[in-house]
Amino acid sequence: MEKRGKKAVMMVGIDETEHSFYALEWTLTHFFPSQTAHHFQLLALHAKPSPSSLVDLQPDSGSAEFISIVGGDLNSTAHRTIQKAKDICGRKSVNVITEVVEGDARTVLCEAAERHGATVLVVGCHGYGAVKRVILGSVSDYCVQHAHCSVMVVKRPKIKHLHNSSSSHTHFPIQKV
C-alpha cells in the first residue's frame, strides 16, 4: 500500500452535509483504528463552488456586490467544514491534511485524487433517487466513472420500522447490500 516509502493517500471528499461527515467517520473507524499503525495518509478535501457559479450574472443587476456576499458565505462554509473535519479526526487521534479547492465538486475531487496520487477516494452518498441524480448530478456517480483511482461510496444505513404481531414497534437497522 505504501509508495516510495510514503504512506498511500486516502482522500475523503467533504462538504457541509451530514452524509460527508458520516463518510469521514466511517473511514476513520474502518481504516484508522485507534492505537495501530495507519497504512494511509488521510487527506480531507472540500470543493468550494465559485460564487459566480451560484449567481446569475446580469449587467447592472448588482451581481458584483452579491458575488462578494456569496463568496464570503462560501469561505465561511469552507472554513467550518474543514474545522469540523479536523475536530473529528483529532478526536480519533488521526493526522489529517486538509485542502479547499474552488470548483465543481465532481471535477475537483477527481483532479485532486490524481494530483495527490490517491489510492482511494472516499465520498458520501446523499441517497438521491434516479430523477434527482439526473437533475442535480451525482458527485459519487461522476467520481466512480472518472476518477483514476478506486472510489468508495459510503452510504448511511437506513433504519426501517418493522411492525410485529403484538402491535408494538421494534426498530431494526436494515442495510441493503
Description:
InterPro entries: Rossmann-like_a/b/a_fold, Universal_stress_UspA, UspA. This protein has one domain (about 10-175): Rossmann fold (3-Layer(aba) Sandwich). It has helices at about 20-30, 50-55, 65-90, 105-115, 130-135, 140-145; strands at about 10-15, 40-50, 95-100, 120-125, 150-155, 160-165, 170-175. α4 (about 105-115) packs parallel to α6. With about 180 residues, the protein is of the alpha/beta class. The chain has a five-stranded parallel sheet, sandwiched between helices. Strands 6-7 form a two-stranded antiparallel sheet. Mean pLDDT is about 80; it is low at about 165-170. The chain is about 40% helix and about 25% strand. It contains six helices and seven strands.
